[in-house]
Design a protein that fits this description.
- It is built from seven helices and seven strands, in the order βαβαβαβαβαβααβ.
- It has about 250 residues and is an alpha/beta fold.
- The chain has one domain: 3-Layer(aba) Sandwich (Rossmann fold).
- A seven-stranded parallel β-sheet has the order 3-2-1-4-5-6-7, sandwiched between helices.
- α1 crosses α7 and α4 runs parallel beside α5.
- GO terms for molecular function: oxidoreductase activity.
- It comes from Asanoa ferruginea.
- InterPro entries: NAD(P)-bd_dom_sf (IPR036291), SDR_DHRS6-like (IPR051122), SDR_fam (IPR002347).
- Belongs to the short-chain dehydrogenases/reductases (SDR) family.
Length: about 250
C-alpha cells in the first residue's frame, strides 16, 4: 500500500473529486480525515471507506474558519501522530460562460480571494505539524493552462493559486515538505450540480481540447493524487502533474 500509515486531510472531502480521492487514499492505507460542511455527506464517504476495510474520520466545519482549520490540524497530528498530506479540494462557484468584461470587479475578486484563502488557511494549518515531523505533502487542484474565453475569473484565480503554490514550495522545501498541483482541463464526471445540457456542453468542450479525445476521469485524478502523495513521487515538488490529456502542452 502506497500510503500505509499516513494521515491525509481532505478539505471538500464529500464532493465528487474529494470523495474519489478519499476512497483511493483509504484503499492505499491512509487514514483519511474528511473535512466539509455537511456531516451526513462526509459520513457517507467515510462509511464507504470503512466498509472497504479502510480508516476514515470526519469533521464538519467551514474551511474558511481559520480557528477551526488550525484546531483540526493540531488535533489530527496530536491524536494520530502525524499530518502527512493536506489536500484542498473545496468547490468554488464561478461565472462559466460569462466574459470577464461583463463581470463586476467584486465578483472577479471574490473568485480569486476565495481560492487563495482556502489554500493559504489549510496550508498554514498543516505546515507547523509537517515542519515538526520534517515531512509532508501539500496538494492543490486546478492548475493554469492556456487562457480560454468566457470562464469568468476561474483562470485568473488558478493563476493566483499557482503563484502561491510555487512560493510555498520554495519556503517549505527546506523542511522536507513537497507542494504539488494536480492540473486538469476539467473533470466532466464531477459536474453533478449542473443540468444535463450544461454537463454535455462542458464535457464536449473539455474533450475537444484534448489530444486523445477524452477528459480525465475521477479515477484518473484519484490515482494521480495517490502517486503524488506517496514516496514514489518523492522527487517531485514545486511543479504540477499534467492530467489535461494534452489540452495543455508543457
Amino acid at each position: 500500500m502506497l500510503l500505509q500509515g499516513r494521515n491525509a486531510v481532505l478539505y471538500g472531502g464529500a464532493g465528487a473529486i474529494g470523495a474519489a480521492v478519499a476512497r483511493a487514499f483509504g484503499r492505499e492505507g491512509a487514514t483519511v480525515h474528511l473535512v466539509g460542511r455537511s456531516e451526513p455527506a462526509l459520513r457517507a464517504v467515510a462509511d464507504e471507506i470503512t466498509s472497504a476495510g479502510g480508516r476514515a474520520e470526519t469533521a464538519a466545519f467551514d474551511a474558511f474558519d481559520e480557528a477551526a482549520v488550525d484546531a483540526h490540524a493540531r488535533d489530527v497530528a496530536e491524536r494520530f501522530g502525524s499530518l502527512d498530506v493536506s489536500f484542498n479540494l473545496i468547490a468554488h462557484p464561478y461565472a462559466f460562460g460569462k466574459p470577464m468584461v461583463e463581470m463586476d470587479y467584486a465578483d472577479l475578486e471574490a473568485d480569486v480571494t476565495s481560492r487563495l484563502r482556502a489554500l493559504w488557511l489549510t496550508t498554514k494549518a498543516a505546515a507547523p505539524q509537517m515542519i515538526r515531523q520534517g515531512s509532508g505533502v501539500v496538494l492543490t487542484f486546478g492548475g493554469y493552462g492556456d487562457p480560454q474565453a468566457n470562464l469568468g475569473g476561474l483562470q485568473v484565480a488558478f493563476g493566483a493559486v499557482e503563484a502561491l503554490r510555487r512560493t510555498l514550495a520554495r519556503e517549505l522545501g527546506q523542511h522536507g515538505i513537497r507542494v504539488l498541483t494536480l492540473q486538469t482541463g476539467g473533470v466532466p464526471e464531477s459536474l453533478t450540480n449542473e443540468d444535463p445540457k450544461t454537463q454535455r456542453a462542458i464535457a464536449k468542450m473539455t474533450e475537444d481540447q484534448t489530444m486523445l479525445g477524452r477528459a480525465a476521469t475521477l479515477d484518473d485524478v484519484a490515482n494521480a493524487a495517490v502517486f503524488a502523495a506517496s514516496d514514489w513521487a518523492r522527487t517531485l515538488t514545486a511543479t504540477k502533474l499534467n492530467l489535461t490529456v494534452g489540452a495543455t502542452v508543457d
